[in-house]
Amino acid sequence: MGAQRYIGVAERRARLGLRQRLAGSAGAATPEEVAGSLVALHGTDPATVYLAVGARLADPAKTVAETGRALYEDRSLVRMHGMRHTVFVFPTALTAVVHASTGLAVAAKERAGLLKHMAAAGAPDAAWLKEVEESTLAALARRGQATAAELAQDEPRLREQFVYGAGKSYEGLHTVSTRLLRVLGVEGKVVRGRPLGSWTSGQFRWAVAPEHPELDAAEAQAELLRRWLAACGPATEADLKWWTGWRVTEVRRALAAIGAQPVELDEGPGYVAEGDVAPVPEPDAPWAALLPALDPTAMGWQQRDWYLAPELRPLLFDRSGNVGPTVWWNGRVVGGWAQRTDGEITWRILDGQGVGREALAAIETEAERLSGWVGTTRITPRFRTPLEKELAAG
Q: Angle, to 10 degrees, between the axis of helix 31-38 and the axis of helix 46-54?
């Protein structure tokens, strides 16, 4: 058996630029192409979805209209819970894979937790909750899309409240609607629909989830891992475990099922998808990008030293590990950006190594490009980071 191929930092950055749709020649035509290439777009912050798409479209002027179309008219993209119990936007065709590979286990815990908390508070039992659930889903089917408040008009029991964590430091009053809709979302029965406000709004209506087949969990995990490695490989076992949220035994089983091929990385053993060991050429030209907070590229790997210098992290991440807006040059993070209250896109270089006139000009072009399609909309990341807050206030 021959030695495993070594894939160095330069090639990993080239793969990133091309497969993450960031290099100039790799721009996508539609939001569906972007989501398909990345497997998933982070959806915790609604603005991230649009900003991540806009950074990768060949014609960013279409970002808001086309992303809204895909999410709320064609429903070719769906916002739902996925890996690590996080909200993502997926291609609709992938929902069955995500649900079976990551959602089912989390859903069982969520429902059990809700019933446990309700019982501790002396709230009604599982049979009562089942009645409310069925009535709520029927009301949602009739309405098409609705807020929790609108659903409570049809099913008043959604307004009932119970005390969570009585006597604890985290004691709080929970409404049945909030907890039940969350459980139904994780179970793949409902998804987030059109927001009440603009594309940056976090107030969503709910909609009945699109129908999908029930898949075998192991087969679904293999398919999800195959897609992710094709988009993001090479990656270490630690990267894969972190991104999926699975147990290490599940990661190893999926790697074996798809015939993933081992390679050597600077941080140790890694994997690529079957047949993906050949060298990847550099993009046609160096590239710059302004990526949003929680962008799937910046958050794609647990081990990030090959594209993000450790000394930059205190300024670019919050205390929970959420990345803020980042400035990229040719496959690595070199700084951060923010939008000021007057709408100006401002940025700062934190790592100037190799960032010369060409890079600065390209970054400024990207800032103007972003400002052009964002227009009068004001963007404040949900999870604010030290550099973003400093730049926004400046």
A: 100
Closest C-alpha among 41, 64, 8, 26 to residue 376 = 64
CB within 8 A of 383, min separation 6: which ones? 45, 293, 294, 318, 320, 322, 324
| Residue-by-residue pLDDT tens, the chain, 394 positions | 457 999 999 999 999 999 999 998 899 999 999 999 999 999 999 999 999 999 999 999 999 999 999 999 999 999 988 888 889 999 999 999 999 998 888 888 888 888 888 888 887 888 998 999 999 999 999 999 999 999 999 999 999 888 877 777 777 888 889 889 989 988 889 988 889 889 999 888 999 988 888 899 999 999 999 999 999 999 999 999 999 999 999 999 999 999 999 999 999 999 999 999 999 999 999 999 999 999 999 999 999 999 999 999 999 999 999 999 999 999 999 999 999 999 999 999 999 888 999 999 999 999 999 999 999 999 999 999 999 999 999 8
- Which helix (H) or strand (E) segment holds residue 190: the answer is strand 190-195
For 172, list phi and psi in degrees, rounded to 5: -155, 165
Q: How far apart are CA 281 and CA 231, in angstroms?
A: 16
Give the integer Cα–Cα distance in Å for 337 and 327. 6
| Chain centroid offset of residue 349 CA | 25
Tokens coding 114: 């809700």
Q: Which two tokens stand for residue 290?
A: 């302004």
DSSP 265: E
**Please, are residues 35 and 63 in contact by the beta-carbon 8 Å criterion?**
no
Helices (H), 144-216: 148-154, 176-186
CA dihedral 286, 10, 21, 359 (to 10 degrees): -30
Record the pTM: 0.92
